[in-house]
Amino acid sequence: MELLSEYGLFLAKIATVVIAIAVIAVLIVNLTQRKRQRGELRITRLSEQYTDMKEEMSVALLDAHEQKLWHKAQKKKHKLEAKAAKQKAKQEHRPEVPKPRVYVLDFKGSMDAHEVSSLREEVTAVLAVARAEDQVVLRLESPGGVVHGYGLASSQLQRLRDKQIPLTVAVDKVAASGGYMMACVADKIVAAPFSIIGSIGVVAQIPNFNRFLKNKDIDVELHTAGQYKRTLTLLGENTEEGRQKFREDLNDTHQLFKGFVKEMRPSLDIDQVATGEHWYGTQALDKGLVDQVGTSDDLLLSLMEGRELVGVRYMRRKKLMDRFTNSAAESADRLLLRWLQRGQKPLL
């Protein structure tokens, strides 16, 4: 028994030392990463990817003998191209004018639209190098969310419009409410036949536990400075005056939403489409909400002729400490905070 006791104590000491070293290592790495860039810009040559895929399919359909001849011809071709490039590099020459580029961005929006932090970096990167003949395609998917988040996302796209860079938004699944607020900034909207489009409206809801708390003899005190600092509450007793003010705020937000869409797409009968309803792609075309029915794949393939397709994506790095600890308590706090905030903020 004494031997087992000493052995257990020894293991406990070893475990304590190992954990302490691990924690220190994580802290050091986390502090080091803070000094580094929080994300990186990833550029993908989509035109080359498509060409490679097309070539791979063509070769796969050949028989074994034809494939062998093809690979032999490709090796010879690559050698000649490499030799020509080497000779060209030695000679003085004017740089070739690159093809017009199509910058392809992706936005898959969540309720709080936190993806806008990457979108702003991508737009900034494009604006830094884009020429007059270039254009941007945004593959958009979003059912909407908080007003301020999608308002900022729309403003980021507006930066492209202000610089006279043609913008096309492609919707394969859904661009509703705040998602449509983003889409309508584009010069052209292309939607898949069964994609969900529209939902130009505003909604907000909040549960109220006041009667339950009263039955349990629990008092809730809410102190504010300003008559309408808090109109509806989660725990306190709501008043008809507060409800009326809350509805007025929703209507004001809806009017701003309608005005923005009308400004971006003047030909729309805004009163007809701003009812909060949504339509499928083919129906949205009839309503004037979109300009063309089709998928993003067909759109990009149609733009490849004489152009270079370039994918632009800004990837944010997660802190090592967040990945290592995966704190459940922190996640629960964020979830509760968002839930409370959503009750006070209207959603598009």
Structural class: alpha/beta
If you average the pLDDT, what whole number results? 84
The count of helical stretches stands at: 13
Query: Major beta sheet, specifics?
Result: 9 strands, mixed
Q: What global shape is seen?
A: flat
- Distance N terminus to C terminus? 68 Å
Q: State the share of residues found in helices, binned by percent.
A: 40-55%
Question: Over all CA atoms, what is the radius of gyration?
Answer: 28 Å
Secondary-structure element string = HEHHEHEHEHEEHHHEHEHEHH
Strand content: 15-25%
Give the low-pLDDT segments: none
* Tally of DSSP β-strands: 9
Organism: Leclercia barmai
Pfam families: Peptidase_S49, Peptidase_S49_N
Subcellular location: Cell membrane
Domain Peptidase S49 N-terminal proteobacteria: 2-157
How would you concisely characterize the structure shown here?
The protein is an alpha/beta fold. Helix content is 53%, strand content 16%.
What does it look like?
With 348 residues, the chain is of the alpha/beta class. 53% of the residues lie in helices and 16% in strands. It has 13 helices and nine strands. Strands 1, 2, 3, 4, 5, 6, 7, 8 and 9 form a nine-stranded mixed beta sheet that branches. Helix 4 (116-129) links the parallel strand 2 and strand 3 (135-142). Helix 4 packs parallel to helix 5 (147-162). The protein is flat, with a radius of gyration of 28 Å. 23% of the residues are buried. The model has no long low-confidence stretch (mean pLDDT 84).
